[in-house]
Amino acid sequence: MLSLALIGHGAIAAEVLRHLQNEPEVQLACGVCRPGREEAARAVFGDVPVISDLAALPEGVALAVDCAGHPGLRAHGVALLSRGIDVLTVSNGALADAGFVVALNDAARAGNARLQLLSGAIGAIDVLAAASVGGLERVDYTGIKPPAGWKGSAAEDVLDLDALDTAAVHFEGTAREAALRYPKNANVAATVALAGIGMDATRVRLIADPTRTANRHEIDAVGAFGLFEFAIEGNPLPGNPASSALTAMSAVRAVRERVARVGV
Are 67 and 42 in contact, with CB atoms under 8 Å apart? Predict the structure, then answer.
């Protein structure tokens, strides 16, 4: 039986919880929230205990699943890894901070644990990672969302999202810049970069498009392996138009993979 802690209580965490509650090989030991958010977290977790301090983490927890965004990974990632607890995360953009990457690596080494970055809202990451072995010359990522998907982000500093009547680019730059500027919206850019050619070499373009109802992600890559093009349109979670339903599904799949006798 795999005992796990689930970090966060937003739309992604709630969807992950819904799928894992009845997994026969998984025990949800606790939910983890920020101090002062216990009541809101309990409304999501129900009978599952909620903690806001890792000192109260139940004995036997072997895995933590981070669905809380960059602040959640920053608050708990190093401590969990140093205690020997593996961490799955969808907050890949947090690794745009090189100093934080060093801290995570040091903690994982000290605790003999592993941080696994989930594919989240994007697919074909296995192809991109394999292609990087032979060498990549170019990787471009384009993220397109309806205006509501960019609300509360740096896109509002560039565009009037409510008045858009045609697609508009609001960011062009590196994956590192995108991940730092859009911590809630550009985890896919970071995932593509980390799997492929790196944060500073991956080129990113972010677009708000009022004609779209789904989030679209595109990857174009060229390297020793040949030419690679990939596109996916994912539906957002009902509770958060900025989050992809596939992000939650990727976390569930990763947990199931941990307990499966045969994996793919």
Answer: no
